[in-house]
């Protein structure tokens, strides 16, 4: 089964369990949302810095890792307010998650 088939099956399971879900992109009043998006943008910048390998020059291991890559994309999505931009960022989140799964599968091969 391909990763995309697994994702499709999980979405079907979620719909069967919860029904169609229609939540707001972010809850809270305008001020709360603005503050949250500013915080998420700051976190995205922090992960961009971590991912660039320039956060701590004393760290001998400056390799990218999946955690940092995924979190950077997630925080970029959460920092957006425009639905089209949120959607574009979430596509990137999904693609990074799929790439991580592919990496795990390659490591698990004999």
Percent helix among the residues? over 70%
Q: What is the total domain count? A: 1
Structural class: mainly alpha
CA-based shape: flat
What does this structure look like?
- By secondary structure, this protein is an all-alpha fold.
- The chain has one domain (26-108).
- The protein is built from four helices and no strands.
- The chain has helices at residues 3-18, 30-51, 66-79, 83-108.
- α2 runs antiparallel to α3 and α3 (66-79) runs antiparallel to α4.
- The chain starts with a helix and ends with a helix.
Set down the secondary structure blueprint:
Elements: H1 3-18, H2 30-51, H3 66-79, H4 83-108
Helix pairs in contact: 2-3, 3-4
Summarize the structure.
Helices cover 71% and strands 0% of the residues.
Which key phrases capture this entry?
110 residues; 4 helices; mainly alpha; flat; 0% strand
């Amino acid at each position: 089964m391909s990763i995309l088939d697994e994702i499709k099956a999980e979405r079907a399971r979620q719909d069967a369990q919860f029904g169609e879900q229609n939540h707001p992109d972010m809850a809270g009043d305008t001020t709360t949302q603005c503050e949250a998006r500013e915080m998420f943008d700051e976190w995205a910048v922090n992960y961009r810095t971590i991912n660039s390998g320039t956060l701590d020059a004393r760290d001998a291991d400056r390799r990218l890792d999946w955690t940092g890559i995924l979190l950077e994309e997630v925080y970029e999505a959460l920092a957006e307010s425009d639905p089209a931009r949120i959607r574009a960022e979430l596509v990137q989140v999904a693609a990074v998650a799929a790439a991580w799964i592919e990496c795990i599968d390659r490591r698990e091969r004999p």
